[in-house]
Amino acid sequence: MEEHHKPVLLSEVLQVLEPKSGESYLDLTAGYAGHASAILGVTSNYKDSCLVDRDDYAVKILSGKYESEPIEILHMDFYSATLQLLQCGKTFDMILADFGVSSPQLDQPDRGFSFSHDGPLDMRMDRGQSVSAQNVVNEYPEAKLIEIFEKYGELSPGSARKVARLIVSARKRKRLETTNELAELISRDKKAQVFQAIRIEVNQELLLIEKTLPLLPRLLKPGGRLAIITFHSLEDRLVKEYFDEVSHLGEESELTLINKKPIIAERLELVNNPRSRSAKLRSAMKRG
């Protein structure tokens, strides 16, 4: 699976997290263990580490990969996992959260994430949840669709209204069930933004990030390092604002920034892994 999903900014993540033998590691979005493999390969500490993912397919891959290791694997979203780990009193030397959609999710037509592949309108990262893209597209009132297209797709008010009206008009004739049916309603230059907006709404991505960020310092040991990778401006804005907020607290802050500006991919990675072109890495350390 790893050859189908290259971890972005891997060398940069290793540089800011500085894994050492025996240290504990929490991966809140473990996916297919692209980052985790490299970090655990250095630490060799499986029993004190934890891998989290809300995607059942990813959890299956992780469970198979580490079936002979005493590592904890949690099938839940990163916010729920954070709450559970806090309740258990767990702390870690390193925490990584990569908020992007994985390549296999985008590439598998039956997941319904991409307008490039025809498949069911799904977009659920956790296939156990009830709300899918079909619910959003077919059941949300026009005003709500306009809101999410503006807020999560960053469409202009005029464009958001136009797309919402096209969807509402089309679904009166026939329930929209496939990605192609939706994509055909949207102009080429707006497809990515509309699909992004629906995906964020389905998975409540920004809300979960917003609720999780303030809790993360409590999961870090003194001197522990936190690395967060984002892929679009809405995610990055939340992380940047959080890091700016804690950095301005001065001596009262639990965290000190490792890199004051976001780290982006080098030219070689951009060539070998196009998915990295929008990735930004921000990091911080818990005061000792």
Would you give an account of this structure?
The chain is of the alpha/beta class and 288 residues long. It has two domains: 2-103 and 207-286, Vaccinia Virus protein VP39 (Rossmann fold, 3-Layer(aba) Sandwich), CATH 3.40.50; 113-204, Putative methyltransferase TM0872, insert domain (DNA polymerase, domain 1, Orthogonal Bundle). The chain is built from 13 helices and seven strands. It has helices at 10-17, 34-43, 56-65, 78-87, 103-107, 133-139, 142-151, 157-173, 179-183, 191-203, 205-212, 233-247, 267-272; strands at residues 25-27, 50-53, 72-75, 92-98, 220-230, 255-263, 280-286. A seven-stranded mixed β-sheet has the order 3-2-1-4-5-7-6, with helices on both faces. Helix 3 links the parallel strand 2 and strand 3 (72-75). Helix 7 crosses helix 8 (157-173). The longest helix has 17 residues, at 157-173. The radius of gyration is 20 Å and the shape is globular. It starts with 9 loop residues before the first helix and ends with a strand. The mean pLDDT is 94.
Which helices and strands appear, and what pairs or packs with what?
Blueprint: H1 10-17, E1 25-27, H2 34-43, E2 50-53, H3 56-65, E3 72-75, H4 78-87, E4 92-98, H5 103-107, H6 133-139, H7 142-151, H8 157-173, H9 179-183, H10 191-203, H11 205-212, E5 220-230, H12 233-247, E6 255-263, H13 267-272, E7 280-286
Parallel strand pairs: 1-2, 1-4, 2-3, 4-5
Antiparallel strand pairs: 5-7, 6-7
